[in-house]
Amino acid sequence: MANYDIGIDLGTTSIIIYVVGKGIVSKEPSVVAVNKKTDSVLAIGQKAYEMAGKTPAHIVVERPLQNGVISDIDMTEEIVKYFIKKVSSSYVVKPKVAICVPSAVTNVEARAAVNAALSAGARKTFLVEEPIAAALGSGVDISLPRGRMVVDIGGGTADIAVISLNDVVDSTSVKCAGTQFDDRIIQYVRLNHKVLIGEKTAERLKKEIGSVKKVMEDTEMEIKGRSLETGLPVKITVTSDEFIPTLNEFAMTLVVAVKGVLEKTPPELVGDILEDGILLTGGGSLIKGLPELISGETGVQCRVSENPIDCVAIGTGMALDLIADGYSLSYSSDY
């Protein structure tokens, strides 16, 4: 396998690049800064993220992927081109590219992802479902006739799938993921403290003290924002416990989806899942109390992947390796 073949975890909040033979080589926010006066791209990735909330009116920092799907094809192509150029070790032979997609992806969305990669210079493009990649990247042997349940909670969507014999038995995708938790935090602070905070502050709050279930002592955190009453900058102190009801209510959307997939899964595979547990992956799986909440509601033990953020990109690279070695993967679509 040439060392410039690439696996891409093209997420709503971040893009992670895996190069076969090298591992994870790049991890940056999937954002673009655009000058609306000239329609030119000013920055991509981390540099663009640092501009967020600090630009003049004619410069917009936007995410071309919304809720796990491509909403702006042109800007997505710019992102993919940028990262392929950044990590490729050869411009003579175009790389093969594997891209992760949600399990419930539509044909239109799949074609948009393929076109972005081909336009960016890929020789051939493979689409791999995110739960499959997450399982592979977490060290799960999906070739066995045994039911495995994966819940991949990304930035825009949560993908829930039962896997057996290298394929997805049943799956669903729900918009209950990282950015939506951030939105709930922003709404809560606005309604209950009359303060407007930004996305970065909400994300930091979620990571540091956010919880969907009481699993730790009440913790305080000081945040900054703009008072909706005076319009002036303010500092307020919030606690972890006060966010539990609103985050728990939203997290139940995910729990209901997990239950729905379990209810449609064949009995023999459900028995395997009960024995092996549910695997949680993605950055959203790190929200405090989430494994305990899902376990308590379903009666099935949950565990978080050892490398929840990178496992999807790693699994994508592993899929490329398997395809190169001649394995027939029924879950990958090539173009």
UniProtKB/TrEMBL annotation:
Keywords: ATP-binding, Cell shape, Cytoplasm, Nucleotide-binding. Its main location: cytoplasm. The keyword Zinc does not apply. The keyword Transmembrane helix does not apply. CDD domains: ASKHA_NBD_MreB-like. It is found in: Cytoplasm. SUPFAM superfamilies: Actin-like ATPase domain. GO terms for cellular component: cytoplasm. It holds the Pfam family MreB_Mbl. GO terms for molecular function: ATP binding. One of its GO terms (biological process) is cell morphogenesis. It comes from the Bacteria. InterPro entries: ATPase_NBD, MreB, MreB_MamK-like. ATP binds at residues 155-157, 203-206, 283-286. Forms membrane-associated dynamic filaments that are essential for cell shape determination. Acts by regulating cell wall synthesis and cell elongation, and thus cell shape. A feedback loop between cell geometry and MreB localization may maintain elongated cell shape by targeting cell wall growth to regions of negative cell wall curvature. Belongs to the FtsA/MreB family. Forms polymers. HAMAP family: MreB. This is Cell shape-determining protein MreB.
